[in-house]
Design a protein that fits this description.
The protein is α/β, with parallel strands linked by helices. The protein is built from 13 helices and ten strands. Strand 1, helix 1 and strand 2 form a beta-alpha-beta unit.
């Protein structure tokens, strides 16, 4: 069987923060990133639409030779992952795998919170799905979870306003709101892959003593452990250390922004999903 790269999917640029961490941890593999920039953000879209778009992306990455696809997007992981794993994979190809970012994040939270009060900051779609609460209830039923939707944060990142003075208001407002709703919170999960790009501002407004949980490194560690436990999948991954980038928007726009996010020169190719 012919091997292929690891597929990494996000609605836009946010998944690049996950790809960066995965490549740092597992530099030997080839990667194929797909950003659905033309249709981002996903955060305010309905369950059906996010599922349909995500399935199209997964099919595209499979056609390009990926045997393993990471949904580096919380909204897609919350709204589409389970259906794809249960209903579509058996039909598309039972040998291939699609993994998400929520489970690896939830697995580390139990060890981090002393107060057992945890906050989740994420898109409206992820918060409304209650996926974090449901996953946390399975692993750590003693933890009290409060979710705060931050609808302006992804547009700030997608429009390169994450460092602007204008971003201060929106970042501060959501953090204050979350901590007003539960002042005992001692750990906050950044449950959206775009948010690490706002980290400077988030640190500025988050009180000291509240831990900020970024998911990139946990997703990377979880992938490392998955591959160690699944040698049959590991053998199917090509190992050239490369990364290629696909986008549904204009390649030039993606190239220049992604170069900033990745901190290295990248080339992108435009694709059409259906
Ligand atoms: N970055 C994605 C997430 O982790 C989605 C952002 C969006 O498209 O709204 O949720």
């Amino acid at each position: 069987m012919q091997g292929g790269p690891i597929g990494v999917f996000d609605s836009g640029y946010g998944g690049l923060t996950v790809l960066r961490e995965i490549r740092r941890t597992l530099p030997q593999y080839d990667y194929l990133y797909l950003g659905d920039n033309a249709r981002a953000p996903y955060g305010t879209r309905s369950f059906d639409v996010v599922y349909e778009f995500t399935l199209q992306a997964v099919r595209h990455l499979f056609e390009r030779g990926c045997h393993l696809v990471i949904l580096a997007c919380n909204t897609a992981s919350a709204k589409a992952l389970r259906s794809i794993q249960q209903n579509d994979l058996p039909r598309l190809d039972p040998e291939r795998r699609v993994l998400g970012v929520i489970r690896p994040t939830v697995e580390v939270v139990g060890e981090m919170s002393k107060s057992r009060h945890v906050g989740i900051m994420a898109t409206e779609g992820t918060i409304r799905s209650h996926t974090y609460e449901l996953e946390l209830a399975k692993l750590c039923p003693d933890i009290q979870v409060t979710g705060e939707a931050c609808p302006m944060w992804v547009p700030l990142v997608e429009n390169e306003e994450y460092d602007s003075p204008g971003a201060d208001y929106f970042v501060r407002q959501r953090i204050e709101n979350l901590l007003r709703r539960d002042p005992l919170i001692d750990s906050v999960i950044l449950g959206c892959t775009h948010y690490p790009l706002l980290l400077g501002k988030i640190r500025q407004f988050m009180p000291q003593g509240v831990r900020i949980i970024e998911q990139g490194s946990y997703v990377a560690e979880s992938l490392r452990s998955y591959l160690a436990r699944h040698p049959e999948m590991e053998r199917r991954l090509t190992k050239g250390g490369s990364a290629h980038f696909l986008t549904t928007e204009q390649a030039e726009a993606f190239r220049s922004k992604a170069t900033v996010f990745m901190g290295q020169q990248i080339e992108a190719e435009r694709v059409f999903l259906e």
